[in-house]
Structure to design on (534 residues):
């Protein structure tokens, strides 16, 4: 009980993202979200977990400013969200890499859109390409990379704009199981290294428990917050320790029990 | 119609890519030899007195190239063709992209091009002649009405089918509307736009010959009609052969242009 326990005793960190009474009804009458209010603490990784089709991605995209909410408001870093902003960066489920651009251009694309000079943005991109483990693939095109490597490029692109909040929409769901595990381990290292706030959407209970400081479980559509879990897991003991930690296994089991009732 | 088969190379040469026979140039040569050989035999058989063998046709082709009549005719044909194609390509892509980006423009424009694509446009040529006479204008317009619909509609579809997540990616990284169009939508649309350009330009070639046969005989159309009327079938076939070769080469160059300008990842494969 070292780092995690110590963090608990400190005053609660300030909210980086505040979701206030968000509801979303899609045209055609599908009610995705129903009056959701959540705070996301600064510097933590918070997962949104729920049955498939429960509106997790919808909520994340509302926070990203990519789709408007039907009612309610989102505050990021104290400001009301009206659209995408420089303090947020998005990691896409299907990677959203441009097939006609190489890794270097894809990773530097956020800076390119900002108008950063080529040499400068490529220097930044190079650093993040190396930090996600893609060094040597700068000139490769997306179709030459495996799914896991493509998502690493997507992650590097989000890191390169140096946003305070990283919004990750099921980033590992299109990646095979083994790559996914490696990816989760790397993500923990990344969280420790980058002082950022992570919002993470996933449908995998194990993944959520493994990587998250806090898990928000959403109910069936129209979604409401069903419960909030803070896994009391000792980090820093290495991936094997975490996966064998009784607290990890118990948390996975109890979340599964609470989610079961939403199936069928 | 040989044009279209050349646009899907990725699937074919994978298994037997190792043997020298599988080299694209070799395949080209084999297929050319088979077709020309069959033509030669059919010409000697003979199917019809109006169907000369391949060798006679080539003889006539070289004779017409050497005495300058074919190059001269080609230059004449090239005038309405090139003006028509330039107008169709730029106006067509422009309109198509605009219609893809703007629902109102689509509502306004797409019915016209959908009708134009399915209507027998050759039937409109007499109307064009009434309106614009028998000169260059009618021939240019014939090229345009043949070439433009498929260019416009392909551009429209291409823009409309930009992967949604790429657009969201551009928005989330704060791209302006113009940046999204220039850096994401157009590059993403370019394969389908270029597919439309290849089809449209091929249709433009058909259009110009149609105009030269139906409006007034000039250029290649003149060689075809004249030699048909005096039963010099070798010359007629030579002119048809020449325009087909010209069209195929043009379409292939267009494909090369696309790879060089828009598809760096295609070059990376080869």
């Amino acid at each position: 009980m070292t780092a995690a326990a110590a963090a608990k005793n400190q005053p609660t960190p300030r909210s980086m993202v505040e979701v206030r009474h968000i509801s979303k009804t899609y045209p055609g009458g599908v009610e995705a979200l129903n009056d959701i209010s959540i705070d996301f603490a600064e510097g933590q990784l918070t997962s949104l977990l729920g049955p498939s089709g429960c509106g997790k991605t919808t909520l994340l995209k509302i926070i990203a400013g990519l789709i408007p909410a039907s009612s309610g408001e989102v505050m990021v870093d104290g400001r009301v969200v009206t659209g995408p902003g420089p303090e947020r960066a998005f990691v896409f489920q299907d990677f959203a890499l441009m097939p006609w651009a190489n890794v270097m251009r894809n990773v530097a694309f956020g800076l390119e859109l900002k108008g950063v000079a080529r040499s400068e943005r490529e220097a930044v991109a190079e650093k993040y390409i190396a930090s996600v483990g893609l060094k040597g693939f700068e000139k490769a095109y997306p179709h030459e990379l495996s799914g896991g490597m493509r998502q690493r490029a997507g992650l590097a692109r989000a890191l390169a704009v140096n946003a305070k909040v990283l919004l990750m929409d099921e980033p590992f769901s299109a990646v095979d199981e083994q790559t996914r595990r490696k990816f989760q381990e790397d993500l923990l290292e990344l969280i420790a290294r980058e002082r950022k706030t992570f919002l993470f959407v996933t449908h995998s209970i194990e993944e959520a428990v493994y990587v998250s400081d806090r898990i928000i479980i959403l109910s069936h559509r129209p979604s409401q917050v069903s419960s909030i879990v803070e896994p009391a897991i000792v980090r820093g003991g290495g991936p094997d320790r975490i996966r064998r930690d009784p607290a990890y296994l118990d948390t996975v089991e109890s979340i599964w029990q609470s989610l079961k009732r939403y199936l069928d | 119609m040989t044009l279209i088969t050349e646009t899907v190379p990725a699937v074919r040469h994978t298994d037997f890519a190792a043997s020298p026979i599988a080299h694209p140039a070799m395949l080209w040569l084999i297929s050319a030899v088979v077709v020309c050989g069959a033509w030669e035999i059919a010409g000697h058989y003979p199917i019809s007195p109006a169907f000369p063998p391949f060798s006679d046709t080539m003889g006539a082709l070289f004779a017409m190239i050497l005495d300058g009549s074919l190059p001269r005719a080609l230059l004449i044909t090239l005038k309405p063709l090139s003006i028509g194609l330039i107008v169709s390509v730029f106006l067509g892509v422009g309109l198509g992209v605009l219609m893809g980006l703007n629902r109102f423009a689509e509502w306004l424009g797409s019915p016209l091009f959908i009708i134009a694509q399915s209507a027998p446009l050759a039937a409109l040529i007499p109307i064009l002649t009434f309106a614009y006479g028998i000169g260059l204008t009618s021939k240019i317009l014939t090229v345009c009405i043949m070439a433009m619909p498929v260019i416009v509609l392909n551009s429209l579809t291409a823009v409309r089918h930009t992967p949604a997540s790429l657009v969201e990616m551009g928005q989330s990284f704060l791209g302006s509307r113009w940046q999204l169009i220039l850096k994401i939508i157009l590059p993403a649309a370019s394969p389908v736009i270029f597919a439309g350009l290849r089809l449209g330009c091929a249709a433009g070639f058909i259009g110009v010959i149609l105009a030269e046969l139906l409006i007034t005989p000039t250029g290649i159309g003149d060689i075809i009609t004249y030699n048909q009327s005096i039963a010099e079938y070798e010359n007629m076939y030579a002119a048809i052969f020449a325009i087909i070769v010209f069209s195929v080469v043009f379409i292939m160059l267009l494909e090369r242009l696309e790879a060089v300008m828009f598809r760096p990842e295609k070059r990376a494969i080869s």
